[in-house]
Specification:
alpha/beta, 9 helices, 6 strands, 15% strand
Length: 203
């Protein structure tokens, strides 16, 4: 099966090299760059020329969110595999008690903006991934990291919000928890490769 692979924010197609190698040639994986402008329809439009033969779409973080948007545009998509792409921790709606973490959210928002892509950060904040997930008709695997990255004080309250929201997803969205941080493609490419190959085996 043809698989389009989409990297995370600040990454590149090369981020998939180890995963692709570990997949062992079972599928034809084409890693694509994600670039602005960050209007989601135009992002998807730039993927369209590569999407011959109705490919599955695999994405990490930002790439996972774009993969879900692709599945929303293309309900005939055989599979979306979303690696920890469920929103950003500056979205107040993802918390059980957003007022209690408002200061931390504001600090993190300024930190993200300092990386120099405020347009991307705003586009991500405006995108409610769970609204996208609930509208999907194609199958999607959502893999969630269970360990925090160093220096991520909002990880646990964000996870609590996810636990509230995950049961609202439709049955075509399968959720798995993996014992890695958000950087799963770098930390354990063999695990990611196995996850992808296994999910695609029945598609």
């Amino acid at each position: 099966m043809k698989v389009l692979a989409l990297h995370g924010a600040g990454g590149s197609p090369a981020d998939w090299d180890e995963v692709i190698a570990a997949m062992g040639g079972v599928h034809e994986v084409v890693a694509l760059p994600l670039t602005g402008p960050w209007d989601w329809d135009s992002v998807l439009d730039r993927i369209e020329p590569h999407a011959t033969d109705n490919p599955a779409v695999l994405g990490m973080s930002l790439g996972g969110m774009v993969a879900a948007l692709w599945g929303s545009r293309h309900p005939e998509c055989p599979a979306v595999i979303n690696l920890d792409g469920h929103g950003v921790p500056t979205q107040a709606q993802r918390y059980l008690h957003p007022d209690a973490v408002a200061e931390e959210i504001a600090t993190l928002r300024e930190l993200f903006r300092a990386y120099g892509q405020p347009d991307l950060q705003q586009a991500l904040e405006d995108l409610d991934c769970f609204d996208v997930f609930r509208g999907l008709h194609c199958p999607m695997l959502l893999a969630l990291a269970t360990r925090p990255l160093p220096g991520h004080p909002l990880f646990e309250p964000y996870r609590q919000g996810l636990a509230r929201d995950l049961p609202t997803l439709p049955p075509n969205v399968e959720v798995v928890h993996v014992d890695t941080t958000h950087a799963m493609t770098r930390e354990d490419p063999a695990m990611v490769a196995t996850l992808v190959n296994s999910y695609l085996a029945d598609r």
